[in-house]
Amino acid sequence: MTQHDSPEGMELLQDARLNKGTAFTEVERDRLKLRGLLPPAVCSQEVQMDRILENLRRKSNNIERYILLQALQARNERLFYRTVLEHIDEIMPLIYTPTVGQACKEFAHIFRQPRGFYVTANDRGKIRELLGNWPERNVRVIVVTDGERILGLGDLGANGMGIAIGKLSLYTASAGIYPDQCLPVMLDVGTNNKALHEDPLYLGSKSRRLTGKDYFNLVNEFMVATQEAFPEAMVHFEDFATPNAHRLLELYRHRFLCMNDDIQGTGGVVLAGVYASTRLSRLDFVDLRILLLGAGSASIGIANLMLAAFVDAGLSEQEARERLWLVDLNGLVIQARDDLTEQVRPYAQAHAPADFISAIRTLKPQVLIGATGSAGSFTEEAIRLIAEHSQRPCVFALSNPTANAECTAEQAYQWSDGRAIFASGSPFDPVEFEGQTLRPSQSNNVYVFPGIGLGALTAGATSITDSMFLAAAKTLAELVDDEALQAGSLYPQLKNVRQVSVAIANTVIDTACKEGLAQHHQKMDNIKPFLEEHLYQPAY
Question: Is 455 in contact with 437 (CB distance < 8 Å)?
């Protein structure tokens, strides 16, 4: 952890990392020149959390709750993270999906103080120099976005910084990465969003988006500069548009320690959910037929890891591909089509043209996965069709935020007569159906990416491989207990996310050692105590 000078008095109260507010004891108040600067009562961190929660719950909407929590993080970091950890079911939807989507849309309008690092096209040739302005030297995790495809909301330009900030909050809360080791970065390469150009409060560049060679040269300069400035850092790509997301991952995955959460993290968490679902459906994983609606970064990431999982389970690559089907805006992805992108083409099948409903009727999938960004894409007809040929149909409505989900949990249960195994990208409340309480799963990448990052950094991995995500998915699926499964949940409780991250980190370290990619650690029988001892703890 970065060493800081020891401030006192008002300077101490303005240092978010060291500030304890009213929790400073009488002795500390005398020693640190705080006497007279605080109300006389000494409050425990527990009492402070009660005060925060009381104020949070009196707010009338989630954006106001988001603003309150951001203000808390800016003045008392440990209180913020302890509140997140101890009330994670309530707080996570406020600091990440679904609220972070609206927060990004309004980012320039609710802006309070600068956080993170901005790189613009005008900074070409001097990015390494500018990184010297960042006050921390021991950066270990960099979350970077260019704001072109924020959740399902599209091009939000520099407003996308909210995503990088939120994602890093999850690295700290879920995997214990120290806050001062986290760097959120916005590559502000312009925006094609006309509304942002016309917004007088917009804080980003109002030029059209940089494209082509100029764009990739800027990203390359950034990648090289970050590795020179922070040689032990991992770069986490977030919410890039599909073609750029895939190209950047392929360009850098073997050169630098990096990953793309939209592609690989989504693949890992969905695969884990499918693994877990087989314990309810009583189907063998290798016998599943999977239909994906959408052909963007998330769908291709899911398909890629599913393919690897089928091969890992003993199928040939051709047999594996025959179990994976994609539908995009133009229908079923088949070999006769000439409009397929480089990433989608490997999943083209020898089949007659078909629309979404016809594909369900013909292919009879047991697993339906949506990553469309389009609300209502899973119609009643679609859900009833899949339920006709599957006793326990598995339905993943992954699009964020909640308003963009392909269907709601209640719809999935109603239209399948209560038999659907349902998961979504943003949370849904439990549903009462014919006297039974059904608990929808949240297929949240937070179950995977923090543990992947923690494991890769602890091992000193030179790269992050698909086999690490495959191992992480298996580990995550194994952590779902029978009681949760019987209630319809495919993932562990969020309150256990730190234990999940440590278990996945352990798996990643093991995999890195087996693949000869670990620089810091050889295989240990049980590295969990080591990891837990070194995680950030937000208690005073």
Answer: no
Predicted pLDDT at 523? 57
Q: Is 126 a catalytic residue?
A: no
Q: Are 462 and 395 within 8 A, CB to CB?
A: no
**H/E element, 423:** strand 421-424
What is the pTM assigned to this prediction? 0.95
- If you classify domain 99-256 with CATH, what class do you get? alpha beta
Q: What pLDDT is stored for residue 146 in this prediction?
A: 98
What rounded mean pLDDT belongs to the chain?
Answer: 95
Cα separation of 339 and 336, whole Å?
9
The CATH fold of domain 1-43: Hemocyanin, N-terminal domain (1.20.1370)
H helices present in 322-419, as ranges:
356-363, 380-388, 409-415
The CATH number that domain 264-443 falls under is 3.40.50.720
Residue partners of 95: CB distance under 8 A and separation at least 6: 66, 69, 84, 166, 169, 170
User: 112-141: buried (b, 16+ CB within 10 Å) or exposed (e) per residue?
Assistant: eeeebbbbbbebeeebeeebeeeebeebbb
Instruction: Give yes or no on whether 264-443 and 447-533 have one common fold.
Output: yes
- Looking at the predicted structure, is the pLDDT value of residue 260 above 50? yes
Q: Is 224 exposed, middle or buried (0-12, 13-18, 19+ CB in 10 A)?
A: middle
Which residue out of 20, 105, 167, 474 is catalytically annotated?
167
**446-483 pLDDT, tens digit each:** 999 999 999 999 999 999 999 999 999 999 999 999 98
Q: At residue 520, does pLDDT exceed 90? A: no
Tell me if residue 167 is catalytic.
Answer: yes
- Any idea what DSSP says for residue 21? G
Q: Tell me if 363 sits within 8 A of 394, measured CB to CB.
A: no
- Domain 447-533 is classified in which CATH homologous superfamily? Malic enzyme, N-terminal domain (3.40.50.10380)
Pairing assessment for the beta strands 182-188 and 258-260 based on DSSP bridges:
unpaired
Residue ranges of domains in the chain: 1-43, 99-256, 264-443, 447-533
Strands (E), 5-161: 117-120, 141-145
What is the per-residue pLDDT for 1? 37
Catalytic pick from 81, 96, 275, 491?
96
